[in-house]
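The passage that follows is intended for readers who have already worked through the single-chain material. We present the inputs for a multi-component assembly, then the predicted structure in tokenized form, and finally a short commentary. You are encouraged to pause after the input and sketch how you expect the pieces to fit together before reading on.
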Amino acid sequence: MELDERKKKILQAVIRNYLETGEPVGSRTISKYTDLNLSSATIRNEMADLEEMGYILQPHTSAGRIPSDKGYRLYVDTMMEEKERKVVEMEEMLLERQDKMETLLKQVAKVLAQNTQYATMISAPQSRGAKLKFIQLSRVDAHQLLAVIVGEGNVIKNNILNVEEELTDETLLKLNILLNTQLNGLTIGEINLAMIAYLKQQAGIHGDIVGEVLDAVAESIRDEEDLEIYTSGTNNIFRYPELADHHKASELINAFEEKQLLGELLQDSRSDKENTGIQVYIGEESSVQSMRDCSIVTATYELGGGMKGTIGIVGPKRMDYEKVVGTLRTIQSQLDEMYRGDKE
Amino acid sequence: MELDERKKKILQAVIRNYLETGEPVGSRTISKYTDLNLSSATIRNEMADLEEMGYILQPHTSAGRIPSDKGYRLYVDTMMEEKERKVVEMEEMLLERQDKMETLLKQVAKVLAQNTQYATMISAPQSRGAKLKFIQLSRVDAHQLLAVIVGEGNVIKNNILNVEEELTDETLLKLNILLNTQLNGLTIGEINLAMIAYLKQQAGIHGDIVGEVLDAVAESIRDEEDLEIYTSGTNNIFRYPELADHHKASELINAFEEKQLLGELLQDSRSDKENTGIQVYIGEESSVQSMRDCSIVTATYELGGGMKGTIGIVGPKRMDYEKVVGTLRTIQSQLDEMYRGDKE
DNA sequence: TATTAGCACTCCCTTTTGTTGAGTGCTAAT
DNA sequence: ATTAGCACTCAACAAAAGGGAGTGCTAATA
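Having made your guess, compare it with the prediction:
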């Protein structure tokens, strides 16, 4: 059977209506709602075909139809009309420039949740892409060093290193010079074991102690793969009855709290990107079990210099895809603008 | 009417039973459950008295009794038998010593949630109580300085300072020496405006630029009053039907996400402390509206040197107070031990 | 005088039974 | 190919009925 133009129109009407109301859509509704001027009986026949083709389904006999995952997919891929979305309160947020990445991201998540009424998450840009700008070891205690590492975009990492032997001031100074001259300009991801081995060799005479410190520095640079994620609006899931029953809600909230799975999700969505950097997962398309009744829209953002992070929006399958995608586009460009603003 | 020994026993029995089952407790149950050897009829009379006195109440005629807030209060104050609680997985956690405060606190929250099956929160110790150990300004960029401030217990703060004029290496070095000699040993809370004014005076000749930097340093030291809070086990609230309906759950989850109110709550509970540092808020006793159907148990912990934080556990009013208080005590002493372990 | 057995009564909870209405599929007419 | 008409289905709501746990009261008992 072929999906002709009329069937498409009817499918689209069913989906649009269902997105709005959340109620199964009947033939009579469609007959009036569209400009097709067809009787409900005709629509019924068409809808039976659409069901057979797998685009819509009946929750039970004698109910209207709701879109299936396949139906949503078709809609998202070919029938949706994106439009830029005004993002409320975004300007304010941008006015007070955030020097702290953390604050900025938390705010983005919050604004997004308020605008869309869905649950949102945002992953901090991986620092491994950022170039090293400055590194410094300072003595804090007899056996403790503080390593401060500053990357492009002023991403700061601290680490307390425990060292067995005491270092002289001179050694420390030399180490600092060595580290800065050798590592400056490299991205954090580039500082690997080979690099460190080379550094150790450079350090030469100081041998053990320096080696120990360098190892610790290397570890603290690469270590922090924990991938921070900020979430907001989790309680929005209660707005959608299809997600709000105890079991599902509990699972979802847990996923949002644990953040482990979210991390993987956002990670995945970054790798296989399309040209636009926006991706939609409908129902079981995402790997997260507890979100099998949800749709997830993710967007990759960039703060310049390879600092890429991902934003995710989680809602019911009948989420307002147009609005969400539109909003995400706006945010993407706002963040981009913000970065360029930073540079000038 | 007097609350004699027998009435107390009955009240205790009612509460104990209700804590377990969550169902209103009838006279027949008590008659069998206790060793009082009284018939249900006698118990009924006594229960009528207890109700008149306000310790228990009937959800509706012909139902059993449930404890009132006043009843719970009496129970918590005089009838509860605390016992130390083994905290599962706590040892493991302590074995891998955490140098990062953040990780430690997150873990404590998690372990606590798993052990108690309630929602938990923990506030990071206020850094204002910590003594300054080390402070350093470094040039990151032509117009950007990085201030690193290390307090006792290796609490680290970073801040990027923007400066108008460029500083010479010499000035920077002098500033560092000045800051370290003058501020070392003071608590972060003690570094106030007067102190800074004095420093400015000391700096003397350098005038403006130094003043600017000092102001920025002062700000970054005292600024961070945001009071970080980590939560865990929010979804545990779904275990308790009396909290799990959409409206209440949504409000609660929101409170846990916003963290604003939690902060005030934990803050309050620290100020008016009893000798033990553990406090119980039953129902409306806490100021947080969305938690009027909950009980909250808070405990103050100390990591030495005035570094005090607060732990909170939120559950239904019929929470297992004995277990919760016991568990908190255990955690308190474990954290204490941990700090002492750090010192030796 | 304190306790208890007995009993009528209350009220929630669950199940049952109707009733309604939106929606369908099919058939026959257009 | 489209549509009017009709019988049928089934969720959702409401009213009715039954069951049961628990109470308060009264009168008997130790």
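Commentary: The longest strand of chain A covers residues 132-141. Strands of chain A lie at 56-57, 66-67, 119-123, 132-141, 144-151, 155-162, 229-232, 278-282, 294-302, 308-316. How closely did your sketch match?
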